[in-house]
Amino acid sequence: VHLLESGGGLVQVGGSLRLSCAASGGSFPFMNMGWFRAAPGKEREFVADINWSGGSAFYADSVKGRFTISRDYGKRTVYLHMNSLKPEDTAVYYCARRLELFTVPGAPYDYWGQGTQVTVSS
């Protein structure tokens, strides 16, 4: 499984971005997928997760109501729609595959992308 993130960039406070995570290899329709982020000097933290069917999503409290995770089976892509961005959202964002049979929160993830930088300027 190979994951490739894109869509990061520089945005002003209150702006929006859409991150993409394209998956190659593996059975994408059966993958549970998550987004994480790592801010400078901080540990990587969970952001959002979507199950294989797209029928269940889970969010960190810090992004609930502002971020939305979705997936496109035809494009084998998972998205993170980010609205009302804040300076504290500045981080490198990573997508990852959740190990099967584990549920969020606290589930382990095995395959990771290389990350995409999001910078929110005030």
Give the beta-strand count.
Answer: 11
Q: Look at the helices and sheets and give the structural class.
A: mainly beta
- Straight-line distance between termini: 37 Å
What is the count of helical runs?
0
The helix content, as a percent range, equals: under 10%
How does the major sheet shape up? 7 strands, mixed
Instruction: Please tell me the overall pLDDT.
Output: 96
Point out poorly predicted stretches.
none
Give structural attributes.
seven-stranded mixed sheet, 122 residues, 0% helix, single chain
Kindly describe this structure.
Strands 2, 4, 5, 6, 9, 10 and 11 form a seven-stranded mixed sheet that branches. Strands 1-3-8-7 form a four-stranded antiparallel sheet, with no helix packed on it. It contains no helices and eleven strands. It has 122 residues and is an all-beta fold. The chain has strands spanning 2-6, 9-12, 17-24, 32-38, 45-50, 57-59, 67-72, 77-82, 91-98, 109-112, 116-121.
Describe the structure concisely for a colleague:
With 122 residues, the chain is mainly β. 0% of the residues lie in helices and 52% in strands.
Set down the secondary structure blueprint.
Blueprint: E1 2-6, E2 9-12, E3 17-24, E4 32-38, E5 45-50, E6 57-59, E7 67-72, E8 77-82, E9 91-98, E10 109-112, E11 116-121
Parallel strand pairs: 2-11
Antiparallel strand pairs: 1-3, 3-8, 4-5, 4-9, 5-6, 7-8, 9-10, 9-11
